Amino acid sequence: GQQLNQSPQSMFIQEGEDVSMNCTSSSIFNTWLWYKQDPGEGPVLLIALYKAGELTSNGRLTAQFGITRKDSFLNISASIPSDVGIYFCAGQLGGTASKLTFGTGTRLQVTL
Amino acid sequence: NAGVMQNPRHLVRRRGQEARLRCSPMKGHSHVYWYRQLPEEGLKFMVYLQKENIIDESGMPKERFSAEFPKEGPSILRIQQVVRGDSAAYFCASSPTSGSRNTDTQYFGPGTRLTVL
């Protein structure tokens, strides 16, 4: 099945730096979501985007729903050690097609 | 409000045995989704169920795998005659409804890690 392309695959950054990652698809979605997964745990929802062009913030996190509906990005400002984890984007059409199509993930590591 | 519950968290089976994974959705949620995650990969959709109905099973292998979400009780993902390739983390997610903004957002459980020896 389809999988969304995320970049970068992994990144090492220093505490306090800003982080940017993005996600692209060959097909459109009506909803974009960003999840964070810690080792041994399930994905935790960070931000949900429901409208093309929408820019939404959640604390230090900001995400945008691309105008073409085929991409999204996530920014994390002033990173802290607990930001370590794997970040997944997911696209959704909705209705009876509510399944999520996940990205390949971006592994973030933060150094002091 | 308790989150999505899954049990067991870890399950070990020998080849040929059956695995049963359980998922209790969040209170007030009537939609359940199952996903599979192999190491170092993203989650892959398997099946979407509402109470007593399978809505979308496009990601479910045609053989050995089945899922149900009865009127009472948890959703069950059943894998018969397990093989080593079934070893993975299986996640359940739930949502309150579908078809409208904000309400088909999925919340995930902690997963069941299946190991087939």
Order of helices and strands of chain B: EEEEEEEEEEE
The coarse overall form of chain A would be: globular
Q: Spell the H/E element sequence of chain A.
A: EEEEEEEEEEE
Low-confidence region ranges of chain A: none
As a percent range, the share of strand residues of chain B is over 45%
Percent range for helical residues of chain B? under 10%
Instruction: Characterize the main sheet of chain B.
Output: 7 strands, mixed
Low-confidence stretches of chain B: none
List the helices and strands and how they pair.
The complex is a heterodimer of chains A (112) and B (117).
Chain A: E1 5-7, E2 10-14, E3 19-24, E4 31-37, E5 44-49, E6 55-58, E7 61-65, E8 71-76, E9 85-94, E10 97-102, E11 106-111
Parallel strand pairs in A: 2-11
Antiparallel strand pairs in A: 1-3, 3-8, 4-5, 4-9, 6-7, 7-8, 9-10, 9-11
Chain B: E1 5-7, E2 10-13, E3 19-24, E4 31-37, E5 43-50, E6 53-56, E7 65-68, E8 75-79, E9 88-95, E10 107-108, E11 112-116
Parallel strand pairs in B: 2-11
Antiparallel strand pairs in B: 1-3, 3-8, 4-5, 4-9, 5-6, 7-8, 9-10, 9-11
